[in-house]
Every structure is written in C-alpha cells, then in structure tokens.
Amino acid sequence: MNSQTTPTHPGELFQLPMPMAGAYALQGLEIGGMRAKVLMPYAPAFTNSRGEVHGGSLSVLFDCALASACRAHDPNVYGVVTLDLTVHFLAPGKGDVIATAVCERRGRAMCFARGEIHDTQGQLLALATGTFKLVERQKPAA
C-alpha cells in the first residue's frame, strides 16, 4: 500500500479539516490506494452506561474511516457524502479502537466501502458497509 502516515492535528483527519474528527479525537494512521486506518482513543465521553465504547461512537469512527478509504486515491481533491452506512455490532469494547476500511468499488461518482473495528488486543468488535458519493473539492478563489 502506498500510504500516507503523517501525523494529523486535532480537528483534522488525514490533513483535512474535519471538526467531527476533533470532537472524537480521531487519528488517521494510514491512507493510500483504496484503504484507510483510523484510531479512536478511549475517552469516558465516548462510552455507554457500562463503560464500553458506545455504538454511536463506533458509527462515527466507521463513517470517517470508510469515507477516507473512498477518497484515498486523491484525498486533497475529493470529499465524500455518506449515502448509507450499515453497522453490525459483534462484541463490546473498552479502550482504544481501530477501524480499517477498504473501498471495494469506486465509480465516477459512487463508492462502496466496508470496514472492521478491532480493539487493541485484536478482538473484532463491529463490521460496516457504506455507500458514498464523491464530491470534488472547490478550488479556492484567486
């Protein structure tokens, strides 16, 4: 994989401004080809009443990771709009979680992606599929 692994700043995901990434402290670990890997560090604010990572927090992580995989071929030129996201929760998780995502098919305007979330011990916590619309970024006015 020809991947980008440069560190990101709070509020950025793979060097692009994304307030949601800042709110969840997401860290882009790898992006390239048709793949992306994103870390969500543990925080009590992201948990349910049992102290496990909340399903909504995992869904945010999936949305960001799958979207990143869909634009991984040229992340500075394309953004994406989520059209559909289906999540299957398999096991509770505590601690940091990592999403890996792959864009299975990219057309001129539509992308189809899938992903997995594991805890740091490698346990599979959730699976997802998503459909995304590619949107070319507007060039800044001169």
UniProtKB/TrEMBL annotation:
Pfam families: 4HBT. Residues 51-125 form the Thioesterase domain. Keywords: Hydrolase. SUPFAM superfamilies: Thioesterase/thiol ester dehydrase-isomerase. GO terms for molecular function: acyl-CoA hydrolase activity. Transmembrane segments: none annotated. Gene3D superfamilies: Hotdog Thioesterase. The keyword Coiled coil does not apply. InterPro entries: Acyl-CoA_thioesterase_PaaI, HotDog_dom_sf, PAAI_dom, Thioestr_dom. PANTHER family: ACYL-COENZYME A THIOESTERASE PAAI. This is PaaI family thioesterase. It comes from Lampropedia aestuarii.
